[in-house]
Design brief:
mainly alpha; 0% strand; Membrane protein / Vitamin K-dependent gamma-carboxylase; Sporulation_signal_mat; transmembrane helix; transmembrane
């Protein structure tokens, strides 16, 4: 009896410590990291106005908020402009090192601290994507984000091959972090859907019409044409609510519905990026969802892409000489 229990326990430990979603976790690092770099660089020449000690958001108010809420920001440790410059550029450097996968776990922590501190310095420049990526970054400190497409990849692969007790613990922490990201995404969609069904505009199918009439969230020349179609606006309004309410159940049901829910999520956020101009919000959401795709599924996608390229390559080679002749 004890031997059976011991065997089952070892099997559970083995399954729990087998790292999953390593490719997706690495893609999250790259996509989220590049987006964070974009935020730093897009605001680079306005950094003193937006985040500096004499910026638009008063330094004294940030200190007051930090003391009241217990929040922390490394930018609040000094009012020196030189100190601000050093901290801002170090955070930029740490994020760049995180993207390329140099000492990934350490850079995950430093990138998180830098982004959190920047947000605390000026909390009005936030959206839902910033909140989610900060949580994902916190979970990512315990995940193996450098297993692929990184400078750490070979070293981490060697560690996995050696195995050992420490590697099993790392594997469990990685899987727990991925699971936390999955639960967080399900909560985001589920809670958003529940809030929407209580709203009158979502109930009568007109919510997207009014959203497309807000100047800050429109695509000039295209949002107007969308809002003119009653059928399209109504269908998309109800589809949005249905998608968000069903996502947690579809994601957890089986692998087929999980793939369907993630594909729908990618399309949903691509639509938000294009039609509402919320690019960074959409990319942050997609980056976290990329981490929820299994390694076997990524390999299947890669194999399909290679077959497609090899199938089309002869046709492309036949077309190239013809194009050269036409241009002469």
């Amino acid at each position: 009896m004890l031997s059976k229990l011991n065997t089952r326990w070892h099997r559970i430990v083995e399954l729990a410590s087998r790292e999953r979603c390593l490719i997706g976790a690495s893609l999250f690092r790259i996509v989220a990291g590049l987006t964070i770099l974009h935020l730093y660089l897009a605001n680079y020449f306005q950094r003193h106005y937006l985040y500096g000690p004499e910026g638009v958001w008063p330094f004294a108010r940030s200190l007051e908020e930090a003391h009241r809420t217990g929040a922390f920001s490394i930018y609040l440790l000094s009012r020196s402009p030189l100190y601000f410059e050093v901290v801002f550029h170090l955070a930029l450097l740490f994020t760049a090192l995180w993207v390329i996968g140099f000492r990934t776990r350490l850079m995950s922590l430093l990138t998180y601290v830098g982004l959190w501190s920047l947000h605390q310095r000026n909390p009005v420049l936030l959206d839902g994507g910033d909140n989610l990526v900060r949580l994902a970054l916190l979970y990512g400190i315990f995940a193996e984000l450098g297993a692929y497409f990184s400078l750490d990849a070979d070293r981490l692969r060697a560690q996995r091959e050696r195995g050992g007790e420490l590697q099993r613990i790392k594997g469990m922490l990685h899987n727990a972090a991925i699971l936390a990201c999955a639960v967080q995404v399900c909560l985001v969609y589920g809670v958003a859907g529940l809030y929407k069904v209580q709203g009158e505009l979502w109930q009568n199918g007109t919510a997207l019409y009014y959203i497309t009439r807000v100047g800050e969230f429109t695509w000039p020349g295209h949002s107007d044409s969308l809002s003119r179609s009653v059928a399209v606006v109504t269908a998309l309004t109800y589809a949005t609510v249905g998608f968000q309410l069903s996502f947690p159940f579809l994601f957890a049901l089986n692998r087929h519905t999980r793939r369907l829910s993630l594909a729908a999520a990618f399309l949903f956020h691509a639509g938000i990026a294009v039609m509402m101009g919320l690019g960074t919000f959409a990319v942050f959401m997609i980056s976290v969802e990329l981490a929820l795709i299994a390694d076997a599924e990524y390999r299947s996608i890669g194999a399909f892409a290679r077959r497609l390229v090899s199938f089309e390559a002869p046709s492309l080679r036949r077309l190239l000489p013809a194009r050269r002749i036409q241009t002469k």
